[in-house]
Amino acid sequence: MSFALSPEEWTAVRLSLDVAARSVLTSLVPAIAIAWLLARGRFPGRMLLDALVHLPLVVPPVVVGWGLLMLFGVRGPIGGPLNDWFGIRLVFTTDGAALATAVMSFPLIVRAVRLGLEGVDPGFEAAARTLGAGPIDRFVTVTLPLMSPGILAGAVTAFAAGLGEFGAVITFASNIPGETQTLPLAIYSATQTPGGEAIAGRLAAISFTLAIALLLLAELVARRMHRLLGRG
Amino acid sequence: MAEIALRHRFPDGGFSLDVAFSAPAQGVTALFGPSGCGKSTVLAAVAGLLRPQQGRVVLGGATVLDTRAGIDLPPERRRCGVVFQDARLFPHLSVETNLRYGLRRAPRDAQGPGFAEVVDLLGIGHLLDRRPARLSGGERQRVALGRALLSRPHILLMDEPLAALDAARRTEVLPFLARLRDAARLPILYVTHALEEVDALADHLVLLESGRVLAEGPVGALAARTDLPLAARRDAGVLLDCIVSGATEGGLTRLDFPGGALLTTLHPGPAGTRLRVRVRARDVAVAVEEPRGLSTQNILKGIVADIQPAAEGPEVFLRLAVGRSDLLARITRDSVERLSLHPGMAIWALVKAVTFDHRTVAEGAPLHPTAAGGSDALPDS
Question: Mean pLDDT: which of B83-92, B168-177, B243-252 is highest?
């Protein structure tokens, strides 16, 4: 068994990284906004929003994929106008795979960001207020830096989880090599192909290595940030 | 000048606050009282961090709160420099960036001391590159003082700035507070439950108890009253504003006060140093004849001005007029009867030179050289 990857396998690895990165980048800002609402907001329906955000954790991924298909399909209420007016098609595309991954990992980011935000002593924000900082000013200069370990933890966890998203991606974006066939989809295809055990093994090893490396990286960066913030 | 009137009832517990007082345009107004008397709540309401149900706050001529007129400026527009008990330096920013945080956001036309001047005043020049996590408690509080002052505020609000520090650190920071008080041409509201901080720093005193103002006025005037809770304290007594006038051959310091002089074992500084000394009533004894053969260094001739009962049964307060100053002496009723003490009677007040243990700092008091040089601890004198 050879450990060298074929060009097709490399494509799957690259695509996985690409999809995971795009999903994290698109969901980060909305995740910070939602985490803020959940941690600090006082409005009716806060619990409902909380439940909605956590839905992808408990609903079968295939159902999430199906829901996205209904909403973002070329005849769906969102996908229709996107396709007709802007020529943006999400179904069966890399963007679609990124969207499905983003929705699936959204609760992970929100949870981590919210934890980070709840760890910020409101006393620092009060101090910033007395020093003349308005709402946006003190969010950018005080709250955001102090909650950054949470944001970073959320981003890395979501990235690692996004590398392996299967059900929602295959349902919404299908399994097209070079377009939507990420690592887990490629592994699945390999296991369905006679003689594909070696490919599946190599790709599984890569998945495993990436996951471990990311978790270690997250831990290292978190420690460094905590030191910078003077928490040990 | 700051005018403050607040009313607030907390929903649960039923604690209610109803205070009105004004703070002079310069100098320290101490809000003094036991914990839970509402003094920190007053500060939070002035800063805008708590919204009282009714109130009016005027700072430097600007009305920042008037519930009747519907005025309620947010804290960021009130221009109150707040020094919190826990410093609250931004942990992700260097000392210098912390110091400049308020300065950057101050109005362009705002008057106040410059960056270099404040850094020099507080002796924090060598700390500028550090992160707050690498500062001692005393250094942190000095930086917090600088940060508040540099925001060019209309008023400085200090919420027990020394309470979180141990005795050595308090002694380290206190002289800087005195320097800041003398350098800042601002009203300073100073919340504390430590009488020695009042003695050392305050010009004006607001006594609070269970959300009400018991009394307000010049510190010396309130200290000399026997009808306030202050008089029930072990360290009750008058405050004398003194000037160091010299030293004796025996190593004692001579302090002049209006109408007399005291010898003390304190060494507050060279001749001309001004300081305020607390003469505790329990440390003052009286004699009806001029005493001889006593070790007591200070024997001051005076007249009994009046006799007031003390809170505890068998004791009284004698108010003694010594020159232009008043002293309080706390003695037993028994002694009053035995010596037939009565108002108008000539007496000698006896005060031992070693009883002055309060470290008091007033304008012109020099800083300990090691403090300005950046070392942490100051020896207690």
Answer: B83-92
Per the CB < 8 Å rule, is A130 touching B101?
A: no
- Hey, what CATH class is B2-223 in? alpha beta
Type of residue at A137: D
Kindly list the strands in the beta sheet with B2-9, ordered across the sheet, starting from the edge strand earlier in the chain. Answer: B71-72, B62-66, B54-59, B2-9, B16-23, B212-218, B204-209, B27-32, B187-192, B155-159, B80-83
Q: SS3 breakdown of chain B: % helix, strand, coil, rounded to 5?
A: 25, 35, 40
Nearest CB to B49: which of A126, A131, A133?
Answer: A126
A136 to chain B, any CB pair closer than 8 A? The answer is no
Handedness of CA A135, A140, A146, A148 (dihedral sign): positive
E strand map for B48-201: 54-59, 62-66, 71-72, 80-83, 155-159, 187-192
CB pairs under 8 A between A and B: 71
pTM for the whole thing?
0.84
Per-domain residue ranges for chain B? 2-223, 237-355
The interface pTM score, or ipTM, of the predicted complex is 0.84
In angstroms, what separates the C-alpha of A23 from chain B's closest C-alpha?
29
**Interchain CB distance below 8 Å, A133 and B81:** no
SS3 content of chain A, % helix, strand, coil (to 5): 75, 0, 25
Model confidence over A104-148: pLDDT tens digits?
A: 999 999 999 999 999 999 999 999 999 999 999 999 999 999 999
What are the beta bridge partners of residue B346? Answer: B303
| Mean pLDDT calculated for residue range B62-71 | 94
Domains, chain A, ranges and CATH? 7-228 (1.10.3720.10)
Contact at CB, A128 and B90, closer than 8 angstroms: yes
Helix (H) or strand (E) holding A127: helix A122-130
CATH of B237-355, one of 1.10.260.40, 2.60.40.1930, 3.60.21.10, 2.40.50.100: 2.40.50.100
Cβ–Cβ below 8 Å for A129 and B74: yes
Q: How confident is the model at residue B374 (pLDDT cuts 50, 70, 90)?
A: very low
Nearest Cα neighbor of A24 from A124, A132, A112, A87 is A112
In which element (H, E) is residue B262 found?
A: strand B260-264
> Does A195 lie at the interface with B, CB-CB under 8 angstroms?
no
Contacts of A142 in chain B (CB under 8 A): 90
Asked if the C-beta of A128 comes within 8 angstroms of chain B's C-beta atoms, the answer is yes
Amino acid letter, residue B231: A
